[in-house]
TrEMBL record:
Functional note: Key enzyme in the regulation of glycerol uptake and metabolism. Catalyzes the phosphorylation of glycerol to yield sn-glycerol 3-phosphate.
PROSITE patterns associated with the record: FGGY_KINASES_1, FGGY_KINASES_2
CDD domains for this protein: FGGY_EcGK_like (cd07786)
Protein's name in the database: Glycerol kinase
Pathway listed: Polyol metabolism; glycerol degradation via glycerol kinase pathway; sn-glycerol 3-phosphate from glycerol: step 1/1
Signal peptide: none
Amino acid sequence: MAEHYILSLDQGTTSSRAMIFNHAGQIVAKAQKAFAQHFPEPGLVEHDAKEIWSTQVSVLAEALAQSGIAADQIAALGITNQRETTIVWDRASGEPVHRAIVWQDRRTAKYCDSIRAAHGDTIRAKTGLVLDAYFSATKVKWILDHVPGARARAEKGELCFGTVDTWLVWNLTEGRTFVTDPGNASRTMLFNIHTLQWDEDLLALFDIPRAMLPEVKSSSEIYGHTAPRFTNRPIAIAGIAGDQQAALFGQLCLDKGMLKNTYGTGCFLLMNTGDKPVDSQHNLLATVAWKIGGKTTYALEGGVFVGGAAIQWLRDGARLIREADEINTLAASVADNGGVYFVPALSGMGAPYWDQYARGSFFGITRCTSNGHLARAVLEGIAFQVYDIVKAMEADAGQATAQLRVDGGASQSDYLMQVQSDLFAFDIVRPRITETTALGAAYLAGLAVGFWQSTDELRAQWQADKVFSPQLPPERVQKMLHYWHKAVKAAQHWIDD
C-alpha cells in the first residue's frame, strides 16, 4: 500500500509556499515562490490577489512534481495564510474588484481615530481587538467606499469578501466553497469571539453587507475538495488556520499558558489561554486560536508589525546587505551595538504601544558608527519589541514565563535568539522543524481525516533543535532596555495627526 502524506499551503506576506509532510511530521518536499509587493503611497501596501493565487497553485504543483508523490497519496490539504489581508471579488467571475489590501496597510488609520471614542470599547468587548487599521473591517469598508459601484454590487449579493484562506479555498474549489475558520474570522474586527458569529452591530457600524461574508467552519474538518484540474484528483481541504494560530498549533502549545513567537515579516507572540478569552489590561489582543471538534481554544496575542521586514528593508531599502542572512555576519563584525538603537516602526507600532504614527528610527549614531552597528541595532530592535510584548503578556496572565518556543525565518539567526534569551533571562527554544506554520496547518488537516488520531500522537513529534540560555550580565541588559525605551518614546507620534 502506498504511503500517504499531508499537503500544506503556506500563503505568506511575501511568498507562497507548499510543503508535503509525512506521518512523522517531516518535510519531504517544499516549493516557494515570491510575489510582488505594491506600495502606491507611503503607508499603503497592496498585493495582486490573482498573483497570490497563481503563485500558490504553482508551488502546489511544483511540490507534487518534485516529490514524485501522486495526488491520490495526499490524505488531505491544509491552508495557513497571512491574516487580515483583505480581498473583495465578484461572486460570478471570481475577479477581484481591487488589489488585496495587506495587513500592514495604514490607509484607514484616520478613520479609526475618528470612531475610536464612540466605538473603540464596544469593538474591543466584542472582538478582543484594539480598533486599528491593521484589521480587515475598515479595509473592506474602504474598498466599498472607493471602488465605483462596489457598494451597490455588495448590497445585491454580487461581491464576496474573504481573507486569504477564503480566497484560496474559493479558487481551489472553483467557487463551490466559501468558508473561513474562527481564527481568521476573529482577525477581521467583524466577528464576535464570545458568540462565535459575525456580529450584526459591527457589520452595521462599518456598513458591510452580511451577504459578502463566508461561512465560519471549524479549523479542522473537510470543507470541500480541490478541483481535479489543479491536483489531478480531488484532495480533501481539511484544515484552515491563520499563520500565527497555525504556528501555535504546530509548536504544540496545546496547554494553557504555553507560548510561542514567530519571527516572520512581523513578529507575533501567542499564549494559549484555554477555553476562555483574556480581557487584556496591557493593550494585547484576545483572539480565537482554533476550534476543533466543537471545542474553542483562545489565545492572547501581541503583534510586532515589522520583524523580519526590518531585515528586508536593510537589504532592499538601505542596501547594506545583499542577502538577508548576511545581516548575521555584519552584526558579528562588531563587539556590541556601539550605543546605536533602532525602532522598527516602519509601519507604525503594534502591541503594546498601538501607535499608528510612530516611524522607524535609528538613535545614538556617531562618527564611530559602522554598518555592523546598524545591523546589530536592527536585530536587537526586533528582540526588544518581543520583550515588551512578553512583559505585557505576563502581567495579563499573572504568571512569569519560563520558556519561549520560536519559529519563523529570522529565528534562524543565532545572534537574534541569543539576544532574546539575554533580555528575558530565560531559555529560548528553537525546534528541529522550524516550519511550524505549515506544520500546524498540516496537523489540523491530518486530524480531520484521521491521518493522525489525536493531539497526543502529535506531541511526541516535537523536538528541540537548540536551546539559547542567558549570558549577558543583568546590569548590561537593564542598560540596553533603558536606551531602548528611551528610543521608543522618541519615535512615537512622529507623524502629526
